[in-house]
Amino acid sequence: MNQSLSINDLHVSVDGTEIIKGLTLDIPKGEVHAIMGPNGSGKSTLAKVLAGNEEYEITGGSVLMDGQDLLGMEIDERSRAGLFLAFQYPHEIPGVSNANFLRAALQARLPKGEEIDAVAFYKQMYARMDELEMDRKFTGRSVNEGFSGGEKKRNEILQMMMLEPTYAILDETDSGLDIDALRIVSQGVNAMRSPERGFLVITHYQRLLDYIVPDKVHVMFDGRIIRSGDKELALELEEKGYDWVKEELAA
């Protein structure tokens, strides 16, 4: 079985307008892939489609996760199968505490009849929160309600660390973070790097990739991957901008 998140010739439209136009990308377990690109290139659309957002119409192509048809799964099935999305703008869930939210999410992954060990759950959660320099009082607060931008992003990474997905999609996790928050969030991501886990990191800026060093960098423009390379490609983009890649393609 192919151990990767494999996207092949994906076409996606919204309200009759094609956004993703034949995108092909393979993210093997054990690797971190970064997608960079200008606004409107389809990066966040790709993340939402992989997570199962029903606002988008898939008009062609396939997505396999370790050989399973991801696009044929319901949203909750994708999550239980090992897919995780860290949102660009994390949602607030009033009235649901962080601890209860995480506990319910983990419980949903257990076989019927099994129960979470509460002592082990809190021990693991507190250890992860310490890694992210989060005050333990956040366990009793409603999910993301009243959180600062940096606190929301740390909370997203806490969720990822607790759920231990097989594939994690991070949609502009660096957005709105100051230097200290960026460092802490990146440390959390790096702590989760594993031969059994793949990452797709979506970002505008090279600075995130100083902390989360990718195995491969892909440039997305107008719904397609137009160039791929190693971390040096991100440095070139930072120096020359996206027009440089488009000019090279046109030459």
Would you write up a description of this structure?
The termini are far apart. By secondary structure, the protein is α/β, with parallel strands linked by helices. The protein is built from 9 helices and 12 strands. The longest helix has 15 residues, at 149-163. The protein has a 6-stranded mixed β-sheet with strand order 6-9-10-3-11-12, sandwiched between helices. It has a domain at 4-93 and 166-250: Rossmann fold (3-Layer(aba) Sandwich). α5 runs parallel beside α6 (179-191). β4 (57-65) and β5 form a beta hairpin. The mean pLDDT is 92.
Which descriptors would you attach to this protein?
9 helices, six-stranded mixed β-sheet, 29% strand, Rossmann fold, 251 residues, alpha/beta
**CATH hierarchy class name of the domain at 4-93 and 166-250:** Alpha Beta
Terminal Cα separation, in Å?
40 Å
Spatial strand arrangement across the major sheet: 6-9-10-3-11-12
CATH H level, superfamily name of the domain at 4-93 and 166-250:
P-loop containing nucleotide triphosphate hydrolases
CATH topology of the domain at 4-93 and 166-250: Rossmann fold
The helix/strand order is EEEHEEHEEHHEHEHEHEEHH
Strand content: 25-35%
Low-confidence stretches: none
Q: What is the number of strand segments?
A: 12
Structural class designation: alpha/beta
User: Tell me, what's the shape?
Assistant: globular
- The CATH architecture name of the domain at 4-93 and 166-250 reads 3-Layer(aba) Sandwich
Kindly report the average pLDDT value: 92
Give the biggest sheet: 6 strands, mixed
The Rg value, from CA coordinates, equals 18 Å
How many helical elements?
Answer: 9
